[in-house]
Amino acid sequence: MFEILAATNNKHKIEEFNTMLAGKDIKIIGMSDLENPPEIIEDGKTFEENARKKALEASNFAEMPTFADDSGLEVEALDGAPGIMSARYAGENATDAEKIEKLLKELEGKDNRNARFVCVIAIANDGEIIETFRGEVRGKIIEKPRGEHGFGYDPVFVPNGYDKTFSELGSEIKDKISHRARAIKEAEDFIEDEMSTIDDFDF
Fold first, then answer.
1. Catalytic residue list contains 70
2. Which CATH number fits domain 2-197: 3.90.950.10, 3.60.40.10, 3.40.47.10, 1.20.1740.10?
3. How does pLDDT run across 9-38, given as a tens digit for each residue?
4. N or C, which end of the chain has less CB nearby within 10 Å?
5. What does the alpha-carbon distance between residue 159 and residue 146 come to, in Å, rounded to a whole number?
6. Which of 70, 79, 200, 202 is catalytic?
């Protein structure tokens, strides 16, 4: 079993990653599995910058192959907001419900509800960034939350081609079509095809 560190404390993300990689000889562990993990400040201006920083710092600390994702929701009518601030859109310790409430308030009276989820994954090993991968899924923001599954903005996001929110579709479908699923599929293919050839990288 190949073990790789995900530079996150978000248990929901860890669960999604492991579900997406079920059946593969890969196990994802999180920062909470480490002793005294560092706090990594996400001060980049893009998803790519934040993902690369998190992956590199976590990999250097743990001395093992690491990947980090930075993801968020971009809404056309809000000029791409909340974007990289998606997790802190309503304040540092805001709940998902509070973030959704702010988003819907900002969209009141706006006809354009187009949005996209973006996920960028960066892989780091041995003091350097190996590669980055980007996944997107487009859809619309509805006026009221629906569904009991998922997290973040899932209850108000309906992906194109569906009439249900990510929260209503559940993990079986979401884990196949989401921004994170698309990015991790690219990363998975890279790990299997490329990283096993890197010097001093045991796969």
1. yes
2. 3.90.950.10
3. 888 778 877 777 777 777 888 898 888 988
4. N
5. 13
6. 70
